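A reminder from the course coordinator: this example appears on the midterm review sheet, so study it carefully.

Given structure:
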């Protein structure tokens, strides 16, 4: 198993999580290349978005001109995009035995609209159950990084969520870390403040350990 641990990713659903500026996009590209080199069928999707409907919702959510958007409206729009993504792309791929990686999922909503935005987590989870039909990730990989470092990595032309300020993003980070502490079996935390090469070594090492310890596990639902 150690020589081909990646085969246990088949039919699994994983989410890459972390604050804006955590370097998720870089590591997604590296993992995509890794899976391609191993002939592992992989689907990568992003949130919000990933479908024609979801991309329209994304434009609404991230448009800086929509500063008046209420946090409940914000949460529900994320969930609407997510519901379409699960139905249209995630579920069919998992049934086909594909490894599915989502750039953000429910943990993001709990961190951004929950801890940072003030919505009660039990309300978010209740809406999530309806939106995703119980299709929770098998594993959440959290790319944790100091807020100041993360903010320095952002494009000066920030979208609506990126531009919410340092204090908001510090609360987002704490929200993520709290989830990881409360649900250690569902989260793998990576130190994303290191170089991209070091981060990828942490990532693949953690995935190898997780796959080795979950050889017989079925996709979580």
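Designed residues:
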């Amino acid at each position: 198993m150690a020589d081909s641990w990646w085969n246990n990713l088949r039919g699994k659903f994983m989410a890459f999580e972390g604050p804006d500026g955590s370097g998720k996009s870089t590591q997604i590209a590296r993992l995509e290349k890794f899976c391609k080199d191993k002939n592992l069928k992989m689907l990568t999707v992003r949130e919000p978005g990933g479908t024609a409907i979801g991309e329209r919702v994304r434009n609404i959510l991230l448009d800086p001109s929509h500063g008046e958007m209420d946090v409940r409206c914000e949460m529900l729009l994320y969930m609407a995009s997510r519901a379409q993504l699960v139905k249209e792309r995630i579920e069919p791929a998992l049934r086909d035995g594909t490894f599915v990686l989502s750039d953000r999922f429910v943990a993001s909503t709990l961190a951004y609209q929950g801890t940072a935005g003030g919505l009660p987590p039990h309300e978010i989870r209740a809406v999530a159950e309806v939106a995703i039909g119980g299709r929770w990730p098998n594993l959440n990989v959290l790319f944790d990084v100091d807020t100041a470092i993360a903010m320095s990595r952002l494009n000066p032309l920030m979208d609506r969520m990126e531009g919410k300020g340092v204090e908001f993003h510090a609360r987002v980070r704490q929200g993520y870390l709290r989830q990881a502490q409360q649900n250690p079996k569902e989260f793998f935390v990576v130190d994303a403040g290191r170089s991209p090469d070091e981060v990828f070594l942490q990532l693949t090492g953690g995935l190898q350990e997780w796959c080795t310890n979950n050889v017989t596990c079925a996709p979580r639902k």
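The two ends are 25 Å apart (CA to CA). The chain has one domain: 2-213.
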